[in-house]
């Protein structure tokens, strides 16, 4: 049965003790919130996480909601705040990283990150060392110097020796990272072309 009550009526019902009323409210907006969050974050998993956090905060603060306000506006504002918080976390995560990190802004890299399967496909051509460097910088947010000190397999000196990071060490790592990003970017573009061809074939059928 389709729920006929207004958003505000459902809020009142929930506050009056009808526990399923809040779930019905969220069902009404969930898909739209995901689309809204995705437009801001350009990443499906981050969008889903932001919406889940927004729903939780809406539930926690439902008693502070003013019934005279439009519920959808209140809910979208919470979701928007969660998205902006995620953007700030991203900015902080990559703060101080080398300029080479700007390549993650490219459309192909963003497209590659949309789902786990495509990421796995794009990174499959990397060897272990390249995977370690990619993970250290792109996932853990390290800068080159941190990588040299903290990732033992990427350390330029033998085990047990004292490491003194030199400019040539950083430059070598920088060039390695640039090469990795080139590989991943080209793979991502290839994946996009393949997906486009597959989609066109499906549409023709």
Features:
elongated, mainly alpha, 69% helix, Rna Polymerase Sigma Factor, Chain: A, 205 residues
Describe the structure.
With 205 residues, the protein is mainly α. It has 2 domains: 87 residues, Rna Polymerase Sigma Factor, Chain: A; 106 residues, no CATH class. The protein has 9 helices and no strands. Helix 6 packs across helix 9. It is elongated and about 70 Å long. The two termini are 35 Å apart.
End-to-end separation: 35 Å
DSSP E strands, number? 0
Gyration radius (Cα, Å) is 23 Å
Structural class: mainly alpha
Portion of residues within helices: 55-70%
Task: Flag low-confidence runs.
Answer: 94-98, 101-107
What's the tally of helices?
9
Summarize the entry for a quick read.
The protein is mostly helical. 69% of the residues lie in helices and 0% in strands.
